[in-house]
Write a structure and sequence with these properties.
Blueprint: H1 3-21, H2 27-31, H3 33-48, H4 53-62, H5 76-79
Helix pairs in contact: 1-3, 1-4
């Protein structure tokens, strides 16, 4: 898979995971475009380094809602609510 295809697929997976978790990845960009865009870009790049994108895509195909990001998700810390 080419670089741009992988990044595009990763953006789709990040958006899909956010939707299933109820995480808002759009509002931070609207509130603070410079930092929000950098943070979203970092999430996409982390996702593009994932070795289980097929598993993630399959999970998203099976589930419309998730309580937490899967353990293998490189963006788990960004998606899951902080524990207190």
């Amino acid at each position: 898979m080419g670089l741009f295809s992988r990044i595009s697929q990763s953006a789709d997976l990040v958006h899909g995971m956010a939707a299933r978790l109820g995480a808002d990845v759009t509002n931070p960009i609207l509130r603070n475009p410079d930092q929000g865009a950098l943070d979203f870009r970092a999430m996409i790049l982390r996702c593009s380094a994932c070795t289980d994108q097929v598993g993630c895509a399959n999970l998203q195909a099976r589930c419309t809602h998730l309580e937490n990001a899967p353990a293998y998700c490189l963006n788990k810390a960004e998606f899951d609510p902080p524990t207190t």
